[in-house]
Amino acid sequence: MRRLALLPALLIAVLTWCGSALGARETLTFTTQAISVPGYGVATAPMLARSPAVDGYVVAMDAEVVDSAGNVQGDDDIMLHHVVFAKIGTPDYTCAGALERFYAIGEERVRFALPPGYGYANRGSDAWGLLYMLMNHRKEKLTGYIRYRVEYVTGETLTPVRPVWLDVRNCKGLDPSFDVPGTGGRGSTFTEATRLTMRESGRFVAGGGHLHGGGIRLELRNRSCGTTPFTSLPTWGGPEPKPLLHEPGPVKMSQFASPRGVPVSAGETLELAAVYDDARPHTRAMGIMLLYFAPGVTAPCEFGPPLALELGNPGPPPPFSMPLPRKPRGPLYRNLRSTWVGDYRYGHERIVIRRGTTFTWRFVGAVEHDVTLVSGPVGFSSPWTRRGTFRHKFVRPGTYKLFCSLHPAHMTQEIVVRR
Ligand SMILES: [Cu+2]
Is the residue at 192 inside a domain? Predict the structure, then answer.
């Protein structure tokens, strides 16, 4: 009996030993230093990130937020808004500078995995960095840690891939967001797009998308061939963390991993198009697709086989109107033309102006803030800033509810534009 029971264990030991002699695949887990997130607030910053200490290939990766005991944080505590990983000192495929963006995770908790035989090459001496944005849904300050798992292959040669980061606001800095005005009427859409002309031939063997609330689809088009080889679709739903500090985004985006993938040829022009609902405003929207490219020989306008999709349960964005997390307070100011934006408050919170007024916000804080439409007749937002001014001309009457997207529960404002 005893001898029989030992047999499986022995077999596993032998197989594991053979496996490591040929090449090993292991899961490496890293945890960042502590990140403090203010109550009902947002924390965003770049930091250095630990990486595998030996040469090998990343074949899959995911990330989550944990507390000091290692417990995974729910969205009701610290929500992972997004984390972007980059290799320091390596040029990016689409943007200037030596930060190669190779993995990102957002509200859609999508794990990236390359098809078998492909890997993202990494040296033990390579340095990684990450840019995080975390959101605290509790009143008190919380401390979180980003824990990421890297599936890592050593001791064998894989077909190398290069990450290709396509963003409809290509290379516009740390906040590549745009605003959907929401003035198109029922059933209308708003599209923001970017193009990339391929410098070399090969195949995209994996990819996925990132949209925000109001997103309908993200299309990868081949303009030279008149095709749309991949569309990333959002899945909606799931419990929304309360209080709502931003318009909820998709809980999943469809992705693909296929060795024959999406073939492209040198000189062909690709277009990434983010299609949003334009029946209502959506501010600080995004449209990003991360693809993994394996250089190789392809025919011009080669038609790839159907992609192996991980689809989710896609559907149109739910009609949604965001309430302000805090009711604007204080006296009502009539015909005001400007206000100040200080640390954690707007100079005037309740304002009535005439239609056609150009309103000015003067930023005088020690930390960054913004002005973002939450609901109202037209979507608009300011950049994050500590200094300078931002102007908006109010041409449509109605009630504009605004907040600072970085301090949404503290900084709110309501501007009524009369006819
Ligand atoms: Cu703020």
Answer: yes
Tens digits of residue pLDDT in 130-165: 999 999 989 899 999 999 999 999 999 999 999 999
- Residue 105 Cα to ligand 1 midpoint, Å, equals 24
Domain with 316, as residue range(s), is 161-321
Tell whether 219 and 261 lie within a shared domain: yes
The number of C-alpha atoms within 13 Å of 29 and in the hemisphere containing its C-beta is: 6
Q: From ligand 1's centre to the CA of 245, what distance in Å? A: 12
Handedness of CA 320, 326, 327, 331 (dihedral sign): negative
One domain, residues 272 and 289: yes
pLDDT digits (tens, 9 = 90+) for 298-335: 999 998 888 988 888 999 998 888 889 999 999 999 99
CA of 194 to the centre of ligand 1 (A): 30
Give the domain-ending residue among 130, 158, 186.
158
Task: State the CATH number of the domain containing residue 223.
Answer: 2.60.120
Ligand 1: distance of its center to the CA of 410 in Å? 8
| Rounded-to-10 torsion of CA 207, 213, 214, 220 | -10
Ligand 1 center–CA 82 separation, angstroms:
18
3-state secondary structure of 14: helix
Q: Where are the beta strands (DSSP E) in 15-77?
A: 24-31, 35-37, 42-49, 56-66
Alpha carbon 90 to its chain centroid, in Å, reads 21
Secondary structure (DSSP) of 189-234: EEEEEEEEE-SS-EEEEEEEEEE-TTEEEEEEEETTTTEEEEEE-E
404 CA to centre of ligand 1 in angstroms: 5
Q: Are 343 and 404 in contact (CB under 8 A)?
A: no
Cα(79) to centroid(ligand 1), Å? 18
Ligand 1: distance of its center to the CA of 166 in Å? Answer: 29
User: Structural domain tally of the chain?
Assistant: 3
Calculate how far, in angstroms, residue 344's C-alpha sits from the geometric centre of ligand 1.
5
pLDDT at 2 over 60: no
Q: DSSP letters along 173-196, please?
A: -S---EEE---S-TT-EEEEEEEE
